[in-house]
Structure formats: C-alpha cells, structure tokens
Amino acid sequence: MPEAVRRSLLCAVSLVLAMVCYIGSCPALQAGPQTAQSDAPGSITRRIGAVNAINGNIIILTPDSGSNVNVTVQPNSRILRTAPGEKDLKNATPIQLQDLQVGDRILVGGKIADNGSILASTIVAMKLSDLEAKHEQELQDWQKRGTGGIVSSVDPSAGTVTVSVGSFGVKKDVVIHAAANTVIRRYAPDSVKFDDAKPSTLSAIHPGDQVRARGDRGADGNDFNAEEIVSGTFRNIAGTVNSVAASSSTVSVQDLLSKKLLTVKVTQDSQLHQLPAEMAQRIAMRLKRGVGAATPGSGNAPSAGQPAAAAPATATSAQGENGGFRRSGNGAPDLQQMLNRLPPLSLNDLHKGDAVVVLATEGTAGTGSVVTLLTGVEPILQAAPSASAAGILTPWSLSMPAGDAGP
Prior knowledge:
- The chain is an alpha+beta fold.
- The protein is 17% helix and 38% strand.
C-alpha cells in the first residue's frame, strides 16, 4: 500500500475534524483533562493511525507517531465509518468490528488501561478502499486540472505567481492566480513527500522555485485560477557519478555546470530509473534543436487551453518522432508518465562514471534528497548539458496526491 495512502495528510485532518465534532457530544471523551498522547492509566486519549492487525476484539494500531498500541473494542464501543474529506460525522454510518480491515485509517478515543492499551469508547474509521478511491480521484484531478513549472516572478499583493511551463523546449509563461481560499503549501527542505508539505504563503515562493497548482485554466491557457498551490526549492544536477556510498545511501555527482562535487541522499521515496537508449536519443534530438518544429499545426506546441506540463496523457504515439512518448493532449510528450512505468534502479546499479541527471531537494548541510535520478543520459548531456536537468525533470513529481503515478 503506497505511503501516500497510508499517511495521507488529507485523511488525517478529516478524521481529526470529525472526531473533534463528535467529542462535543460524547461525555466519555469530555471527562477529565484531555491529552492526545497521555499514557497515564485512566486518562483520556486519542490516537490516529492505520489498522495493523485485528485479533478478536483487539485492534493493533500503528499510529502516525510512536509505537504500536493495542485497542480493546468493548461491547459498548461505537464504531463509525466516514468518507475521506468529510468535516463532521453527520454522514457517518455505524459499522461493526468485523467490518474493519488491515490498512483502514482509524481515530480512536478512549481511556488508557492499566496495561497501556486503549479501552475504546469511539472509533472513527476511513476504509482503505475509500482512501484508495479518493487517492485515485485526486490523481486524476491533478493530471486533468494541474499545471506547474519554474517560477519566474511572484507578486503577493496581486496574488499571482508566474511560471514557465512545458518541457523539451516547448515553454510558455502562465500566471497562476491565488484566491483567499486557495490552499498554499511548501515542501520542507529535506522532504520529497506531499504529506510533509506545510501550510505556507505566496511570499514564501521565490523565482527559481518549482510550483505545482491545481485549478482551472483560462480560455487562452495563459492564466490559471488555483485551488491549491504546492511549492518547493529544488536543485537540478547534471553530471557524472563520482562515488556511491551504500552505507549512507548517498551519491556524489560531479556537476557539469558548477564544476562542484555535490552529494545527494537516496530515500525510499526517491525515483531512480535508466532511460532506454531510444528514449534518450529522442530527448537529445529535441533538446539539440530546441524543438524548432514547435509551430502551429506541428503537434509539438501546447494548445491554447492545455499547457504542456499539465495536461493528462490521453494517447500514446506510434513509432516516429516521439519514439513512443506518451503525449499530454496536443502538447509535449509526458516524460513523467513514462518514467513511472520504467523499472526502478537501486544504488547498486549506479557506478562511478555513469552520466546522470538529478532533481533533488534543497536539503540541509549541503545534502539534499533525490526526487528523481536518471541514468542512460549520455546523449542528452552531449546535446544540451546546460539545460538537461532543468529541461527534463521539472516540474517535479509529487508523492501525494499523485502517488506512484506522478501528476
């Protein structure tokens, strides 16, 4: 089960809000001082997490923080099922213990027993099947109604962010408009996970940052009204592998542009792939000529309402200029869609001298975390070494809500 599903920030927030609403009408949860993580016997507690196992009337809960805890379902325990995104329990339905399954998200309220387990008064559940369905809906919505690129300017007073969107030389400026109700988040310096994106503001976004937004495009495709904006500062690296340290899961790369030796860390959320030779050659050809054929009617330029970096992949081209690339509507080939279908690499597959392009987090102490690392890119570096990483691997792939498939 994908991490983005198990630990979905959206689901956690929805469950907490639902439980808070229920607490107002639940005397058992109002009694005494309320602490979310107290271990004192008899104290009231609330824990949120995923069902790890169910043994009789005991639920083993894996909380979002801390170690596993046993939850005892009592005869008078109330178990409710609510849908992802619900803000209260008005539409919640009663269910039985046997309706719960491993992977379901639950919020438990009750008392701490003498043995440290929780005597559940109430369990609010979100079914794994509902979470996965919600996850898939959000994935499709980000693909259909998303855009993203490199920030060229920000005007917090006007509520706008201007980004350069597209790939393979097909670029255009899009003005993203934020309203009062637009959700704005920003990635932590060392994180590649959507779950870790924190509430933020437009003023925290700077030129050179990368932005993904979900919302509605204007008729001409040059304006975008955002419901949600996620930003981050990322590093683009193109060069050769100098060394691989399996013990620390790090790779040092000799960057062609800065001439510096840069170190990046590979995490469980990092994407490592090798480009097939034909794909690398096709990308190199497009970069080398700057996509000179991107003229009206050529099929290479994005349509007015369909920026290249944002449109969903709707068709797969045959052999020919795009080399099997999956297209985004009438726009540029959708590389991220293809990368997600390539077999993953491991650190053991990387060797000194390998040519790589890397998208990594800004990081701290000089070491960022790898978002995407590609090998097999020698033709690309020869064709356009100064634009390779930035031109291919941006905007970055979100781990949530796009999950394993990317936006």
